[in-house]
Write a structure and sequence with these properties.
Elements lengths: L5 H11 L10 H13 L4 E6 L7 H11 L5 E6 L4 H16 L4 H15 E6 L4 H5 L5 H6 L5 E8 L2 E9 H15 L10 E4 L5 H9 L1 H4 L8 E3 L2 H7 L4 E6 L4 H4 L1
Helix pairs in contact: 4-5
Length: 254
């Protein structure tokens, strides 16, 4: 999002057959952010990081927290998730802070509660990107790699797992919908979203049409967002994701 965008990622792969590399943020980059936080007058940070099963960023944040002891308290959490699933937790925490929730309640209860209560599922055109980037085992990639099959995945225990396979876009959308329903549906009082990878949102809009029963009469608009370069590199174009909390958790989470 600074000097590279998702369009470049997909064009680069089409032209060269090579996936761009992803890496941890540098200590210099993180240090700059920390210095700005201190300069802005804050003395505490809640950091909800990309799953440690997918990235080393969480471990880096723990080291940073130790180095900042004495002038800035950093509470680092392993989201065990990524992208939309991770983002929902951050959005709700921001709302909780705005509403006046205390540091103690946030760090001792709320973060863990939100992370455990979030669900995110996504379908992809192919598992080739995930296989080549090492984010999915070769065996799982082969199992979901048949022609015309759209695999559906989720994060479990911080790692990507194959939930099932569907033939074609319509069936994969239906698979996503059934998965949402099996979890009890969507809690519309908490963050929810549909995401996509690629050059346009056609696949996401198509999914919304096929999943109308999940949303109609329950929300004025469903947030639709483009998944960024880091995750897009590993997932590839054509992915559709849905992230939500369930009504079953609503009493504790709302």
């Amino acid at each position: 999002g600074v000097d590279i965008d998702p369009d470049f990622i997909y064009k680069h792969y089409e032209e060269t057959g090579e996936l761009p590399k992803t890496s941890l943020p540098s200590t210099e980059e993180i240090g700059k952010v920390v210095r700005q936080i201190v300069a802005d007058g804050y003395d505490g940070v809640v950091a909800v990081m990309l799953s440690s099963g997918l990235s080393g960023t969480f471990n880096l944040s723990r080291i940073l927290a130790e180095e900042c002891e004495g002038f800035l308290e950093i509470r680092a959490y392993d989201s065990m998730n990524a992208s939309l699933g991770q983002g929902m937790t951050l959005l709700q925490l921001a709302a909780d802070i705005e509403s006046g929730m205390s540091w103690e309640e946030l760090t001792e209860r709320r973060v863990d509660q939100l992370m455990k209560g979030s669900f995110a599922f996504f379908s992809v055109d192919t598992l080739e990107y995930l296989r080549r980037s090492g984010r999915l085992s070769a065996a799982a990639a082969v199992a979901g790699g048949l022609l015309g099959i759209r695999p559906v995945l989720t994060a479990q225990n911080g790692e990507l797992v194959l939930l099932g396979k569907a033939r074609g876009i319509a069936q994969s959308d239906n698979f996503l919908n059934r998965t949402v329903e099996q979890r009890g549906g969507i809690n519309f009082r908490l963050p929810y979203a549909v995401g996509y990878t690629g050059v346009d949102d056609t696949a996401a809009r198509s999914y919304l049409e096929r999943s109308a029963a999940l949303w109609q009469g329950k929300t004025d608009a469903v947030p639709v967002c483009r998944i960024g370069c880091g995750i897009g590199t590993h997932v590839g174009p054509g992915a559709v994701a849905v992230a939500f909390y369930t009504p079953e958790d609503g009493g504790a989470l709302a």
